[in-house]
Amino acid sequence: MPAIEKLGAATRTSSLWSPDDVTVIFVLGGPGAGKGTQCAKLVSDYGFRHLSAGDLLREEQNRPGSEFGEMIKAYIKEGTIVPMEVTVQLLENAMKATMEKEKGNNKPMFLIDGFPRKLDQAHAFERSVVPSRFTLFYDCPENVMEERLINRGKTSGRADDNMESIRKRFRVFVETSMPVVDEFEKQDKVVKVEAVKSPEEVYEETKAKLKERGIEPIHLVFVKN
Ligand code: C5P
Ligand code: MG
């Protein structure tokens, strides 16, 4: 990737795509709220493409020769937000690759999970990539998220699923990410789901709320010969 100040989010003055070409739904919620779990379910029932900002950052961090690897590693360990130009570029690249691969298919629909975690990311993405349709927000109290993260930490191998990093990530979520939810809320672009119950129950509420916004599962038709 080119230097940070040369990336699209920093230089482009209009959006790459229009919401008529591609649907983007942001998926937010504190660490451990269940974003990834719900996204996996939505992918199989709705035909969404799932992009996790955190996963893309970890991938870039581990890519041999990445000029941003060391920087990303330090931010993730501290639970702070990586400079938005990098994350927006990784998302843009991943969207392009998916669209290229599926050229000619139906209108692409993306769930972008764990993004935007900061107002500058939200503004840069909507300005230079594509405006989102709405944000799916998984609301969960910290004690529940903490328990889930500690459990996940036993097997995830993630450098940030430990008590010290978790505390920092909670603080960043409240101070830096909630303002994004609040701003979208004012635009009536937040779909809030309670995320305390079991994954199946949370998913039922998710489906009901998506339906209210006109988004329905895809029904596969099997044709008998
Ligand atoms: O979403 P996830 O928990 O996988 O994110 C892990 C870390 O990646 C975050 O704590 C943060 O350091 C970084 N991140 C970021 N910007 C995003 C998403 C993740 O800086 N939009
Ligand atoms: Mg995740």
UniProtKB/TrEMBL annotation:
Names of required cofactors: Mg(2+)
Any one annotated GO CC term: cytoplasm
Places the protein is found: Cytoplasm; Nucleus
Group of enzyme by EC: transferase
Cofactor note: Binds 1 Mg(2+) ion per monomer.
Domain of life: Eukaryota
PROSITE patterns documented for this protein: ADENYLATE_KINASE
Name the record gives this protein: Uridylate kinase
Organism: Polyplosphaeria fusca
